[in-house]
Amino acid sequence: MKKTKPAKEENLKGTFVSVMSVGVIIIVMWVVVYYMYVAR
Amino acid sequence: MIAAQDRKLALWNIGVAYIAFLIGTLCGLLQVFIRNDALQLPSWLDYYQILTAHGVLLALIFTTYFIFGFFVTGMSKSLGSFGPKVLLYSWIGFWVTTIGTVMATVMIISGEASVLYTFYAPLKASGWYYVGLALVIVGTWISSFALVGHYVVWRKAHKGELSPLFAFMTITTIIMWIIACLGVVATVLFQYIPWAFGWVDTINVELSRSLFWYFGHPLVYFWLLPAYMAWYVIVPKLLGVKVFSDSLARLAFVLFILFSIPVGFHHQLTEPGISNFWKFLQVVLTFMVIIPSLLTAFSMFGTFERAGRKNGGQGLFGWFTKLPWKDVRFTSIFVAMAFFIPGGAGGIINASFQLNEVVHNTMWIVGHFHITVGTPVAMTFMGLTFWLVPYLTGRKFSKVMQKLGFIQIITWTIGMLLMSTSQHILGLLGAPRRTAYTGYNNHPSALEWFDGILTNHVTMAVGGSILFLSAMLLIYIVVMTMFLSPKAELEADFVEFPMADSDKEHTPKFLENWWIWIGIAFALIIIAYAIPLYGMIHHAPPGSEGFKTW
Ligand code: HEM
Ligand SMILES: [Cu+2]
Fold it and tell me: Which pTM was predicted?
């Protein structure tokens, strides 16, 4: 029996980088306010 | 095109929405100038009166009517024309809501209800203000049940089938809304109305605030979910692709039923009457909402990348340039989404228990909700308006209108960037929200707040004015496409309802078993609220008399 080749993986690298950037924005904003809190 | 009667219903809803938008944004403009001491109001008009009108008309009335206009159109499009009963109840709902709106607005204008849209006790408005608000809610319930009825008829005729995505999402939003409103209805009927009419002397303030915020947080999801519907169902069609994942979309929506309600204490983190344990529990549940939010972000980027690559985009970000930027229906919603990234991040900060102390009741909060409801939601609705109104009236959306549409969203973007950035910074410095002009007794640290490039009075006034001009441009577009633009005659001139296909073969059926989600939602609500609310009633603080501070 011949193995059927799996369909070519869709390229979603841009999506991956984009969602990671969203995560980074969240963390950066959070840390900024966190340090303001600690500093007060 | 959907049935004429359904179109009429939707158009009336959208019409009222934009009347509220017109008055509400005018109030916004006045607020900016008053806060900057550039405008003195006549003695019969008061800052807090205007601010109440702004909050009520934009956050409650504009959103609600627009949402029902969108729901009616989409439900008729995806499930078929409304039957006579559905139509009848939708109209009853519309009129009950409208009577309530008029009552509340009249009380605000006559100076009997300057208690802001959150109407915190012990500020006391005329009883008719609360009656008006109660009618608004009851009216939306009637309209909601009409849509649920329409859906039930469809389900009966399509046994074993998952409903179309638009209908599924509408029903999710409605279920959440009905459960959420129980809190506000309870406090208005049993606490505010008897107190405001003088049948009882005092009110349990802590209980009233808690019941309000039990409603107040899901209220923001009632605004947001219809915007998400546009993102999930409309945007892919504009891009020429299918919904990224039907199961993911449905899962994200049901998670919002679960996690948007048992979290209201995150608005009350500074209140002494609730113990830290319950606050912490609700903070944790609040953070659960990040899951469906990030599912949504992922699915949007995935949709963009898939569409961009289909159009020949190469490399890591080449797809980005291949998106239909010249289509105002898409670009508006894209900008709306972009605003939601810092908006959502700000929300996580607000809800982070101790960090809330940094921002609580400051201008940061005002900045925050203008880049959540004020732009992501409102600008998504603008993007929908550009095709929804001409679709419903059968008029053309001309090239000129498309240009004006672009000017409108660009000006809103600029105005909002100026205004909300300055509000965020002012808030971090400590400037309070909900305050008319004050010189802070010339205290140097307060005066310094307004020295920044972004936080000075001129920047804010410019931002607010640009926003108002943008709002008026939108009103012009709405009036044109509603009443004046030429009727479409050629096939190509008709505006379409862009609803994307969604592959639901692999979607698990249990996602549409509502009893599961309603059951878990109530379980979470009971866990999060039963004991603290019982405590507030059983160990009630001495009640408060009403105050009229204006
Ligand atoms: C012309 C555009 C707008 C301008 C210039 C504007 C301006 C303002 C300002 C200056 C405040 C803060 C007042 C204070 O805390 O003292 C405010 C509050 C508020 N705005 Fe806007 N806004 C605009 C559009 C919107 C939109 C589209 C929405 C929602 C759909 C919205 C919702 C709110 C809400 C809920 C409040 C809080 C009211 C309260 O504290 O009770 N605004 N707005
Ligand atoms: Cu909230």
Answer: 0.96
